[in-house]
Amino acid sequence: MDSTTAATARLTPEDLALIAQAAHRAPSLHNTQPWRFRARLDGLEIHEDTDRALPVVDPFGRDRLISCGTAAYNAAIAIGHLGWTPQLALCPDPGNPRLLATVTCGPRRRPDAEGEQLYEAIPHRRTHRRVFLPTAVDDDRLEELRGAVAAHGAWLHVVDARRRDRLADLLWRAAREQAESREFRREIGRWLRETGEGVDGVPVASLGKAPYPVDGLVTHDLPLRRDAEDWIAEELTHSTVLVLFTLGDDPLDWLRAGMALEHLLLRATLDGLVASFADQPLQQTRLRPELAAFLDEPGHPQAIIRIGRPMVTVPPTPRRPLDQVFMN
Ligand SMILES: Cc1cc2nc3c(=O)[nH]c(=O)nc-3n(C[C@H](O)[C@H](O)[C@H](O)COP(=O)(O)O)c2cc1C
Questions:
Q1: Mutation test of ligand 1: which of 21, 24, 29 has the most ligand atoms closer than 8 Å to its C-beta?
Q2: Which ligand 1 atom sits nearest the alpha carbon of residue 129?
Q3: Residue 147 lies in a domain
Q4: Are 166 and 78 found together in one domain?
Q5: Whose CA is nearest to atom 14 of ligand 1?
Q6: 8 domain residue, yes or no
Q7: Does residue 159 form part of some domain?
Q8: How confident is the prediction for the chain on average, in pLDDT?
Q9: Nearest Cα residue to atom 5 of ligand 1
Q10: What CATH code is carried by the domain that includes residue 213?
């Protein structure tokens, strides 16, 4: 049979569960899982769940939409795994802005090797807030990651040694501002889970142990050390720091940034790399444009990611049961 023969998909409940499961394993801001799914005969709708918003950390919902973009990407990869060409429509209904994406089955096709690898990587991808081995990520791997984000119209800025100190300064200022804001810390506190029994949020055991949050979350008072910036700059040398950029900065760009981000993270996982987020400067309205300016980039920074080789593996974070995520 021609592998691209058109056929109308009627997905089984098992197929739909597989697609939803893949989408649900996506990373999200503080593991808020800010999505709801509606099943269709031929795929999945992904709706934004504003009840799971973080209005202080993410006042414009930018990270929420990036998170939903990561889920949409995984759903598309899962549809490819089932032997269909994934078809994606972002913000398809102007009358229903909460419907962020429909991910449906196009013509039949044989799963391709690259797609299968990305699908296999989904359960193995984790945010790594632990120590990185001090080995640089080689140029070939970086090229692959650049290719992954370019497929979604985004690009990467690899922060060089010259600009690392400037980034350390920005990270320190952002972390200080967050630590000094009671509203900020209260909101973060609501998504921290002391025990491993939750179904969402960030387990405390998943956080790093570093005195300054070059990654991870600002959850407490920061020690006021004069050498803080040096410490952060030194820590940054243990990983490769990437900033994901998009040309525009509206909800569609945020969704596409999420797809680019998840593509990058799955590609990195396949290469034995791990990633963490150092997003604090992007969560401060004033500091975000400063970052774009000193990196001399024309677009808008959407994520600051550290990638490298892990010293240890970290456990998976929990997710809500799927039946809580489906809409009627
Ligand atoms: C848009 C976005 C922003 C994030 N921002 C941060 C962050 O500022 N600090 C952090 O430690 N993790 C951040 N994360 C990682 C999430 O906390 C993580 O994805 C979530 O806890 C689920 O864990 P997992 O990635 O291991 O599956 C972010 C993830 C996304 C998708």
A1: 29
A2: 11
A3: yes
A4: no
A5: 29
A6: no
A7: yes
A8: 92
A9: 29
A10: 3.40.109.10
Nearest ligand 1 atom to alpha carbon 63: 1
- Which residue's CA is minimally distant from atom 9 of ligand 1? 216
What are 58-82's pLDDT values in tens digits? 999 999 999 999 999 999 999 999 9
Pocket of ligand 1 (CB under 6 A): 27-31, 63, 66-67, 70, 126-127, 129, 202, 215-217, 277, 279, 317
- Top mutation candidate among 277, 300, 312, 313 for ligand 1, by most atoms within 8 Å of CB: 277
Q: Which residue's C-alpha comes closest to atom 21 of ligand 1?
A: 31
What is the distance in A from the centroid of ligand 1 to the CA of 83?
30
At a CB cut-off of 8 Å and minimum separation 6, what does 183 contact? 56
| Closest-CA residue to 297 (of 157, 177, 127, 162) | 157
Residue 2 pLDDT > 50: no
Q: How far apart are CA 281 and CA 265, in angstroms?
A: 20
Q: Which of 126, 145, 167 is the last residue of a domain?
A: 126
CA of 196: how far to CAs of 193, 201, 202, 313, 321, in Å? Answer: 7, 10, 9, 16, 15
Report the amino acid identity of residue 161.
Answer: A
Give the nearest ligand 1 atom to 66 CA.
Answer: 1
Give the whole-angstrom CA distance, residue 304 versus residue 308. 14
CA distance 40 to 9: 10
Residues spanned by the domain of 204: 132-310
Residue for token pair 């096709």: 109
Candidates 276, 259, 242, 239; CA nearest to 125 is 276
Task: Provide the number of structural domains found in the chain.
Answer: 2
Query: Residue of the nearest CA to atom 11 in ligand 1?
Result: 216
pLDDT recorded at residue 202: 93
Say whether both 97 and 168 belong to one domain: no
pTM of the model as a whole: 0.96
Please tell me which of 135-139, 177-181, 320-324 the model is most confident about, judged by mean pLDDT.
320-324
